[in-house]
Amino acid sequence: VQLVESGGGLVQAGGSLRLSCAASGSIFSINTMGWYRQAPGKQRELVATSTSGGSSTNYADSVKGRFTISRDNGKNTMYLQMNSLKPEDTAVYSCVAIDGRLIPTITWGQGTQVTVSS
Hints:
Layout: E1 2-6, E2 9-12, E3 17-24, E4 30-38, E5 45-51, E6 56-59, E7 67-72, E8 77-82, E9 91-99, E10 106-108, E11 112-117
């Protein structure tokens, strides 16, 4: 599986961005996809996950009600719609794909920078 993110950038507080994560390769093996983020000097944080083809989603408390994770299985793409952005959302956002094998393989994208100005 290969993952390529896009959609990051600079936005003012209160604005919106949509991140995309395009998957290719052995996509049939993917069970869970998600987004992580890491801000400078901070630990990597799980932002949102989507399991079972998108039927089950989970969010970090810090983004609930503002971010929405979705998957377009026809396009093999996952999205993260981010609304009401705050400066503390500034981070490198990376998508991740986890397959359903007994010993899972985890694939990471290259990351995309999101910067929210106050």
